Amino acid sequence: MHRLESLRPxxxxxxxxxxxxxxxxxxxxxxxxxxIAAHGQQTQPQDVVFKNATVMTASHxxxxxxxxxxxxxxxxxxxxTVNAPAGTAVVDATGLWLTPGIIDPHSHSALDSDVNEAxxxxxPSMHMIDAFDNRDKALYQALAGGVTTELLLHGSANMIGGQxxxxxxxxxxxxxxxxxxxxPGSIKFASGENPKRLYGSRNQLPSTRxxxxxxxxxxxEEAKNYMATQDAYNAKVAKGDKDAVAPKRDLKLEALADVxxxxxxxxxxxxxxxxxxxxEAIAHEYGYKIRAFxxxxxxxxxxxKIVPEQTAIAxxxxxxxxxxxxxxxxxxxxxxSMRKGIRVALKSDSNDHxxxxxxxxxKMVHYGGATEDEAIRMVTLNPAWIIGVDQQTGSIDVGxxxxxxxxxxxxxxxxxxxxxxxxxxxxxFDVSLPGLGTPHFSGVMHGDNESGSDDGEDGQ
Amino acid sequence: xxxxxxxxxxxxxxxxxxxxxxxxGNPQHYLGAGxxxxxLLAILSVYLSVSLSxxxxxxxxxxxxxGRLLTVSHxxxxxxxxxxxxGKITAVGEIGKVTIPKGAxxxxxxxxxxxxxxxxxxxxxxxxxxxxxxxxRDLSEPSDEIMPHMHVADAxxxxxxxxxxxxxxxxxxxxxxxxxxxxxxGQDIFIQLAGADRDAMxxxxxxxxxxxxxxxxxxxxxxxGGHAEFPSTRxxxxxxxxxxxxxxxxxxxxxxxxxxxxxxxxxxxxxxxxxxKGDKIFKRDLKLEALIPYxxxERPVVxxxxxxxxIETIMALAQEFHxxxxxxxxxxxxxxxxxxxxxxxxxxxGSIYDFPRANERFDAVYTLPAELAKRGVKxxxxxxxxxxxxxxxxxxxxxxxxxxxxxxxxxxDDALKAITLNVAEIFGFGDQLGxxxxxxxxxxxxxxGDPLDVRTDVKQVYIQGVPVPMVSRQTKLRDEYSK
Lengths: 460, 483
Fold this sequence. Notes:
A: TIM Barrel; six-stranded mixed β-sheet; B: about 475 residues; TIM Barrel; eight-stranded mixed β-sheet; globular
């Protein structure tokens, strides 16, 4: 378990200007090129056709005896047959299942114990990329479970935590080569028991839910003030006022301003029905949108009211009872909320469950009667939407990244094992290989931090 | 916001006390303000139905007919019949070959799978409720390492909401064990997940001694910043254990001597006692006394141990004192599997989801059940999630853990046995539970498919031949918010 008390200092990376993302991507591409050069790794994806598979597309149903053509790292064809050129390598997938890569919209893997900068309830300028350890064994174990994309989030100690990093689970490549290109930024908020318990135990604000939400409002008031100061300065400059003094840049307020400007997806750790309503009210008050509630174990109680907000949920299949705000959790939450119109994803928040999210999806057939299509979507396309990468991945559709998993059995059953995992058309896991089964990884893994949860069974 | 009170009063009435209209715990949490009369009504209706119908129901003959019977002990019977009467299984066989008694209630099980109730070999049912609520926690006494006189039976809260939740997925029996801080943590109970009251649910008190050995028990080493106390190392833990068992041997000798002296004294004349120097009243020591049946090998000692070299150390000690061992966890024992087989002791694997080490293959732990079974080890599988202590909130996932073991090479029949008959046998209930055999307690589950598959829905659970209401606090919340 991550402890909220874990207080290792975190280096701070800051967005200095709007071109940051572009620069990150450029750096990533450069690093990828360097990595390939340095390791002599073959990361050029091979064109391939999977033939005669049970193709679960996640977007348009299941194709029995279907084919999928991968060309230049993208899906170039899917259907009963595909128009791949003669000579394209063929994988005979007779008796096997093919799904999109599993996507986890709530992971704290590969962050050592640097999940929570729990020194203040408002820490929006923390960037999880600064703690991302691309050699953590949790990434490999998740890969072997078919996970191709993860949203690595700040923990839930703070009402306003830090900014997430989106990775493609390319185990064996360098850190920056694992970043998901062009993924939008997300910021983690939290509410409820965790912030109030942590700061309350130090006799600080917040120690109640009243305190929790007031801390948020106060932060946004400061951000508005900061934005107004910046606007005033910009107006002076526009008028040609050469004496105008630039206001001091404040990284924390800059990040909050990005929330108010709609530049960051807001991902909120939140359990209780009343808190969903409060969070939406505050979002309206300050003019931002909530992308998803995470955990959201009581969404079944108020789904009708949240549907118009278009806020999704990332929830557990059946984890419950570990603390008071998880006491009304029911395993039918996901399907009940989905039936009312909520976009539902399942997530791990755990280095354990991330290895078998396909089974968690299978449970939805049991708890509420989800169709196979609906169930598989909860661990592919819907989490892709929450992260904001659903145009690139999350389903087997022409033009999307070739993030694919080949399974030996129905992936919604208890018995499925991932046989091969492809990311951008490149093979990153192959169970038939000796040793670890990782074509691109050799060397030493890290991994002292076992659970990968900041909110697990011990109520952390 | 809907008012949940109405729901409690509308709840179907149970013939069993462990039912979600809870009478203990924290009713305020479940029921809103002004709900007391409703609560009382609900409780009353449950109690009335308990006293009125439990015996009648048990006497009713039920025939489950047309299902696929997974007997566990003698294979699969397609299109079978199972008859239950007086709480027992009275017939099992193919349709047409079994006579259904006149007046029996016939349950149509076509398309259904019927199997013995599942048995979870390690839980903490009734020792905790909401995980984070310390007041409700009775998991262990960490004041000393040697706590054999802690009886789980004394803390077991039969009305826990966790039990109906697990029962709905076909768990009908379980071992309740203390948590693992101590090398000798206390004595387990073996329970049935339904019954008129606590005593009816506890099928066996002090059925096994819960022991643990390894890194986690050397907690007095100042590792958390405190000052070091004995025992702070594995050497200390083993020495302390060895001394304890020697003390028990000594205690037995003194107790027997005192008893013999007492007998002599009773025979002797009143004035013959003056010169008796050793004539002290023998003072019982509950701690040492608690260990006697285990030192005599009368009951099993369940040893939670993770590392291969720790297994070798603790087994040497266990053999020195002739303990009847059941190994538990054995997560990182891949190097000593043959040795474990040579010990000829049963092994509980839990959690199958525990993490392999860095640089180990991802399935190093998933394959343990298969590897042990291949070597002839009798295995059981528990429901624990990875890492950390057992949490019985997840007990309902027990069949999936067994299914996962099957996915990684354990033969299917062995997987089912590892959560039914093997558990019953390891804890001394093999003649009563764990398979569909005539004469056994009628703990039977009917589902719409493979019991080990996550997609399968359990349709009905029978405990002692009585259909258990398929209701938990969670189904009530579901139904309330589905209106």
